[in-house]
Amino acid sequence: MRPPAGSRAEPSRAARAGLDPSPRRRRKRAEARAMLRLAPAGARAIVDMSYARHFLDFQGSDIPRAMQKLVATQLSPSFREAVTLRRDCPVPLPGDGDLLVRNRFVGVNASDVNYSAGRYDPSVKTPFDVGFEGVGEVVALGLSASARYAVGQAVAYMAPGSFAEYTVVPAGAAAPVTSLQPQYVTLPVSATTAYISLNELGGLSEGTKVLVTAAAGGTGQFAVQLAKKAKCHVIGTCSSDEKSAFLKSIGCDRPINYTTEPVSAVLKQEYPAGVDVVYESVGGAMFDLAVDALAVKGRLIVIGFVSGYQTPTGLSPVKAGTLPAKLLKKSASVRGFFLNHSLSKYQAAMDHLLKMYAGGDLVCEVDLGDRSAEGRFIGLESVFRAVDYMYMGKNTGKIVVELSRSVSSKL
Predict the structure, then answer these.
(1) How far apart are CA 139 and CA 99, in angstroms?
(2) In this predicted model, what pLDDT tens digit does every residue of 369-396 receive, in sequence order?
(3) Rounded CA separation 392/388 (Å)
């Protein structure tokens, strides 16, 4: 009597054909089944199509063969000169610890110009992908990443190459969000920059006088709100009465529209003893003004100097020769802050900010370009227009570009 196929006495048909999975592969399949049971409610199940190093839901996600993305093809402080829209790029595949995100909204930052000019890494060679952050849907992921995420899940993330229809994102650089809302794009770079820098360098306490420059912008709006949460007195500079009204709505005690009021004169008259903290992102003449406005033991936090980014050097002139004497006279300090140097605190900051937004304790103002001359920023081609809009100082809140829901061709 012949033993049944697959028993110890006789190899199974699959084994005879060389198709029987190894113990390692069987173990990975068991792990995958366990992970599927942990997928968030409502998320589409992951389908292991190949038993290879990727989990890909090809049919459910309609991942196309090619996509559009923005690529820096030459180094230039002019974003339009540096960056090219490429229309037939292969869709990348995620590694073991990665997510493949179909982007729905992407954020525009002043530092996009610095990045495409090659200033953050002098050794960088073109071509390279641009964009820092986005919100989208997970459409594929690696085995390790599937322990925390599932296909169909909405995420916000900070990772290079967000100006694309699809971006590979390390799972550790993403955060689950409840839906595909543009407001979530404000958190990965702008809000975390304000939160971590003020916690590390601000020394905020009740009654601290805080001056925020470009206060109605993508990062400034969070510096204002977080300082108010710490019971500080907040002054904010902006360029229009509409922005002044917005600043008042988020708690700013003294908005200053610098097109109608000289900032220096207002500070001298209303704050003769100076301000304790300046949160500065403009540079040039505004930096000089901020130094002069510091109180004894005042702290000036530099998160940028946008007024110079589009120049060949990336800088706008400041009165550096007098800076040592001015700081010494007041026992004051100037500190720089670059988010990449505080990534150990990043995840905790994101978690906290997400809870604040979910609880209604944080306003995440976005500017989708509805008030721009050509209307809403839709599609990767509108990123160029959005960057121009930002450098003209037109935005209130974070500039966000919406990407189409559609995909072109399937695998």
Answers:
(1) 8
(2) 999 999 999 999 999 999 999 999 999 9
(3) 6
